[in-house]
Amino acid sequence: MCESNQLNMKHEITLRTFNNSDTKDLFEWRNHPIVRVNFFNHCPLIWEEHKRWFQAKIQDPKSFTYIAYKGKDKIATIRFDEKDESIKVSVMVNPAFMGQGLGTEVIKLGTEEWIKGKQLDKPIIAEIKGDNIPSRRVFERAGFKESFTTYVWNPGEKVHG
């Protein structure tokens, strides 16, 4: 793999920094219907927009992404985006590997690797849709705690009452 500092856990998961060879995989994972429904923006991605986003993320010094492997298989991605008040973490599991208990390990491993040598002064936050129970459980098993709930009203929606 690309990183000399590879980490192993019980499923022998390793990490490396993502690169241009991952563009298509992330595009396909993100557009899979099971994955897409759990994103805040659940619309299908357009290839040209995805390529631009991907290049921007690679060049952004406040964004860092790992690709997780189990053997030779790409199983997930974990990304950290530094914001003013927090660090946002997001995880996407390859649809072919969902339901195998790998997400928790990817979160633990990715977080441990990313924080090495850093003196963090702000929290790491995962924003998860309320009805995405599997993601909520995975983050809880990885040591994250529920902090607050956000309620949203979108213009154009009817108010029931």
Short description:
With 161 residues, this protein is α+β, with helices and mostly antiparallel strands.
Give a structural overview.
The protein is built from five helices and five strands. The chain is α+β, with helices and mostly antiparallel strands. The protein has one domain: 3-Layer(aba) Sandwich (Aminopeptidase). It has a five-stranded mixed β-sheet with strand order 1-2-3-4-5, sandwiched between helices. A hairpin with a 2-residue loop joins strand 2 and strand 3 (73-82). The longest helix is centred in the C-terminal third of the chain and has 14 residues, at 102-115.
What coarse outline follows from CA principal-axis ratios? globular
Strand arrangement, major sheet:
1-2-3-4-5
Number of contiguous helices: 5
The helix-and-strand class reads alpha+beta
Largest sheet: 5 strands, mixed
Radius of gyration over all CA atoms, rounded: 16 Å
Query: Distance between termini?
Result: 56 Å
